[in-house]
Amino acid sequence: MTQVQGGAAGTFDQLFRVGPGDVVIAICFPRYSELALKTVQYAKDRGATIIGVTDSEMSPVYQMSSGSLLVRNEMISFVDSLAAPMSMLNALILPPRTSRERISPRPSTSWSTSGIASAFSGRSRMNKQLTVIGGGAAGMMAAICAARRGTAVTLLEPNERLGKKLNITGKGRCNVTNDAGCEELLANVPQNGRFLYSAFSRFDGRGTMAFFEELGVPLKVERGRRVFPVSDRAFDVSAALERELRRLRVTLVRDRAVCVLTDETGAVRGVKGEKGTYPAQAVVLATGGVSYRGTGSTGEGHRMAAMLGHTVTPLTGSLVPLRGRLRGAAGLEPAERGADGLRERKEDLHRFRGAALHAFRRVRPAGTLVLGAYAAL
User: Fold this and answer.
1) Which long-range contacts link 148-151 to residues 24+ away (Cβ below 8 Å)?
2) pLDDT tens digits for 165-200?
3) 230 secondary structure, DSSP code
């Protein structure tokens, strides 16, 4: 057994003779090291068998591995604890017990109760019954990811069809994501982007692209590295998600959730809807914000979260038109012009280059929506 370590040159020197018949154990956790991923890919290209020790099925190492040990981290923080993976590695490295020592007949049971899930050429299992409230993009993806892990999932959506808002995004084309990695995505979040580090390190723009292409939605990259379906039809994206829900046998119910039911200890026991009650040991609130009430984004999720004791901060509009004097725009017909900055008292607050539409004393999409987000802050 050889431990591979060192800088870029040293790493590949140590793997010079790797090939068929060799096994490489790749230990990789967020934030995934680019050097580590290149090293694993190098070994795989040369015919070695890859065994991954990583955090989730979305991990790049999981995708490259013949088998994986998954060690999940449930911390709600941008700083991830490595206590769980180190505990599992210690258990693997320790020498076998002697015949006189007590041997646990099912060691994996203690792992699962400690938050450590194992999977070798398979997927980890979740035994809780889950109800997802909201059948938009987030709700459908949450239901799919849970169902793929063996969870019994019920999806509640009051609208006549799933993905109602999704189907009108990008002028009906659906701007799926941006062709960007974690760091670049975070750099373009208007405020407190580091809060999203843990999420983006597991599932960034390229992970999103891989997810939808796996579902049979061919994608293309356009100006600004925006990603759209090749068909230019948002309905193809929502239809792919719905097909996967049905393949995984997620229970789809047309009902409006009223509240989350809990017992005296505060544990979740179900969801009460207008038409019935749905048992659950866990609930995902994916009801959207308050941006477009006609699509179902009415703020119900914030109300239910507050009922459960969560703090809900005041909500502020973000991607909105700007109103005010438009210097040099008088007499112009509605047309696209350059939108390049937001100023207050002769001080630049934010600068951005993109398209803008000047009409009726308002500056409207697309570029100025980005400036509107900064103005709202």
Assistant:
1) 148/57, 148/123, 148/248, 149/123, 149/124, 149/125, 150/123, 150/125, 150/126, 151/126, 151/127
2) 899 888 899 999 999 888 888 888 877 888 888 888
3) T
DSSP code per residue over 129-147: EEEEE--SHHHHHHHHHHH
Enter the pTM of the model: 0.59
Question: Taking the mean position of all CA atoms in its chain, how far away is CA 371?
Answer: 25
Q: Which residues pair with 227 in a beta bridge?
A: 177, 221
Distances, alpha carbon 282 to alpha carbons 121, 151, 285, 354, in Å: 27, 10, 10, 43
> Are 279 and 129 a contacting pair, CB within 8 Å?
yes
Strands (E), 241-305: 251-253, 257-262, 268-273, 277-279, 282-285
Q: Please indicate whether residue 100 or residue 220 has the higher confidence score (pLDDT).
A: 220
Closest Cα to residue 215, out of 157, 281, 144? 144
List pLDDT tens digits, range 127-175.
Answer: 679 999 999 999 999 999 999 988 999 999 998 889 998 998 888 999 9
Tokens of 225: 């590295």
